[in-house]
Amino acid sequence: MNSRMRDVVLRLLVCAFCWVTATYAFIASSAFAYLQFIKPRVFHWLGTFADWHGAAAWIWLAFLVLLLSPHLRARGTAAAVARIVCAIAVVEVSLNALSHVVASLHDGTRSVAVGVASLLPVVGIGLLDHIRAWPFLVRQSGPASEEATALHDGRLFMTSMATALLLTAGYGVLASVSLIGAFEPDLLSAGLALGIASALLGHFLVFSAVFVTLAVLARMGGASFSRQYVLLAVAASALMAGLFARLVGESVGLVHASAAIAAGAFGVSIVVAWGGIRLTRHASVNRTLTSALDVFFGPPAAEQSPRRLVVPLIAVLPLAWAFALVAGRIDWDFALLKSGVVCVWILTFALVYAAVPLRNVPTIVVAAACALPLGIHAIWHSSEPDQHTLSRYAVYNPSYLVTDGLLRERRESSAFDRYLRANTGLTDVDVKPVSIDLVSPLRPISTRPPHIFLFLIDSLRSDYLSPYNASVHFTPRIAEFAASNLFFPNAFTRYGGTGLSVPAIWAGSALAHKQYTLPFDSMNTLQKLVAVNGYRRIQTHDHITEALWSNLDSDTVLDPGKTEMDFDFCGTVDELGRLLESGAGRDTQVFAQTRSLNLHVAAVRNGYVPPGKSYPGFEPPYAYRVERIDGCFGSFIDRLKKLDLYDRSIVVLTADHGELIGEDGRWGHGYHMFPQVVQVPLFIHLPKPQASASIDGGAVAFSTDITPTIYAALGYRPDVTSPLAGRTLIRQDSRDSADRRRASDVLSASYGAVYAVVSRNGRRLYIADAIQEQDHEYERMSLTDLHWSEVPVVPATRALGQLRIRRHIDTIGHTYDLERPF
Amino acid sequence: MRRLVLAVLLLGYLAIFVRLPSIGRGARAFDPLDARGREAETAIEERRFADALPIVRDLAGEHASDPVVAYWLAEVHRGLGHPRDESAALEHLFELTSSADFACPALPEAYARAGDAEKALGAYERCASAAPDDAERWLDLGAAYAAAGRSSDATGAYEKSRALDGSNPRLPPLSPPEPAGESGKAPR
Question: What is the pTM of this model?
Answer without folding.
Answer: 0.80
